[in-house]
Amino acid sequence: MPPIVEAFAQAAKNAMAAGFDGVEVHGANGYLIDQFLRDSANQRSDSYGGTLEQRARFLFEVLTAVCAAIGSDRVGLRLSPLNSYNDMKDSDPLAWTAYLAEQLNRFDLAYLHIMRADFFGLQKADVMPLARAHYKGVLIGNMGYTPTEAEAATTEGKLDAVAFGNGFLANPDFPARVKAGAAMNVPDQSTFYTPGAKGYTDYPTL
Fold this sequence. Notes:
Blueprint: H1 3-17, E1 23-27, H2 32-37, H3 52-55, H4 57-70, E2 75-79, H5 93-103, E3 111-115, H6 128-134, E4 139-142, H7 147-155, E5 161-163, H8 166-170, H9 174-180
């Protein structure tokens, strides 16, 4: 096992030893796994580059090792087919999504977590129906869902769950607001990834 793949497996073991219920492998947003997956970044000429099948090899090796280390039922995966964060792009995000969704069935993961859009709006496509059509396990959608849209998506079987990110950041009482149908605080993006309490712990509750 390559040392970097072994490091992923060891990190998963460490998380479990620390009392976590599971881990989410981060294959999104231009970080290491995503750099292999998307053809704008992966310019390798060896068996880890070129075709989509070869670009996905590193991801599959990591998942194999992590699942073996802690059990596949405790492993999730996050992907971002469209997000151009960290200058990432792929020439065919639809084919990319369909291929990965199909291949990931063999890992019997706890879930597949997909970001449906691009932070910067540069890349646009409807990837979620493809993911739903090809992936047979638990599918979680993320990015810009309203509570109403999330309820419709799960009720209609388009998704099994929806993850809310900055909705929770800006609304510490997010579940209570959803239940009450109350207005939501708007996230202050100028405070994202900045130090101090502003934008993290100073949003008002109901």
